[in-house]
């Protein structure tokens, strides 16, 4: 009697067997609600951080930004969004410092994405048509640790293109990150994060 023929195991299945379950997608699919769906344009968007060390300041930037923004049909406060940046794309201009930051502090292999999931907004001011100042409410996840945040943002809607700019402080210890030290110079726990997002309909280019 012939033995049953075994199905071949694909590379993806083999990876799951060796590494465990695959990580969840960085951004879930947008909710199925009425509205206008805009996609983040990576080439035009960026995330920057400014750090204060004991003897000098330095900054870093990541441009592997993605995600979506769902603009409601009527009430702008019902906006939904998911924005992610690849943690390994953050660069400070010094390769050794970047390596230590990614491996020892951000631990990018275990936590490959930094994510902001927006569930609503509070409009603070509308100085002109197509422009507003708001506070977005949602969950900011860094190093795998989520924190509820209310973040200020200035939004401009020019035709089909939305631009959102905002800055906010992040305390590294709130996300289980020890303050990094480079060449015995320790960085302070609080960093400033500045986000510039440009979004448009699917296929939009800057």
Low-confidence sequence ranges: 1-23
Got a strand count? 11
User: Sheet with the most strands?
Assistant: 8 strands, antiparallel, barrel
Shape: globular
Average pLDDT number: 83
Distance between the termini: 65 Å
The amount of beta strand, in percent, is over 45%
The H/E string reads HEEEEEHEEEEEE
Task: Figure out the total of helices.
Answer: 2
Q: Can you list the strand order of the major beta sheet?
A: 1-4-5-6-7-8-9-11
Indicate the radius of gyration in whole angstroms. Answer: 20 Å
Share of helix, binned? 10-25%
Structural class category: mainly beta
What does this structure look like?
The model is unreliable at 1-23 (pLDDT under 50). Strand 2 (46-53) and strand 3 (57-62) form a beta hairpin. The radius of gyration is 20 Å and the shape is globular. The chain is built from two helices and eleven strands; from the N terminus they run H-E-E-E-E-E-H-E-E-E-E-E-E. The protein has 206 residues and is mainly beta. Helices cover 10% and strands 50% of the residues. The longest helix has 12 residues, at 95-106. Strands 1-4-5-6-7-8-9-11 form an eight-stranded antiparallel barrel.
């Amino acid at each position: 009697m012939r033995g049953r023929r075994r199905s071949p195991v694909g590379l993806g299945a083999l990876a799951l067997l060796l590494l465990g379950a695959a990580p969840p997608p960085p951004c879930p699919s947008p909710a199925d609600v009425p509205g206008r769906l805009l996609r983040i344009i990576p080439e035009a968007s960026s995330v920057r951080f400014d750090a204060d060390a004991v003897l000098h300041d330095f900054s870093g930037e990541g441009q592997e930004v993605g995600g979506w923004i769902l603009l409601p049909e009527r009430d702008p406060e019902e906006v939904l969004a998911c924005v992610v940046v690849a943690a390994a794309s953050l660069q400070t201009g010094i390769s050794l410092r970047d390596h230590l930051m990614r491996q020892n502090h951000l631990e990018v292999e275990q936590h490959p994405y930094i994510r902001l999931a927006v569930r609503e907004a509070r409009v603070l001011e509308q100085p002109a048509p197509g422009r507003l100042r708001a506070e977005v409410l949602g969950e900011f996840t860094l190093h795998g640790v989520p924190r509820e945040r209310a973040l200020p943002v200035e939004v401009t809607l020019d035709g089909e293109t939305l631009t959102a700019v905002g800055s906010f402080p992040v305390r590294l210890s709130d996300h289980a990150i020890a303050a990094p030290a480079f060449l015995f110079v320790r960085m302070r726990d609080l960093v400033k994060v500045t986000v510039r997002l440009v979004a448009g309909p699917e296929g939009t280019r800057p």
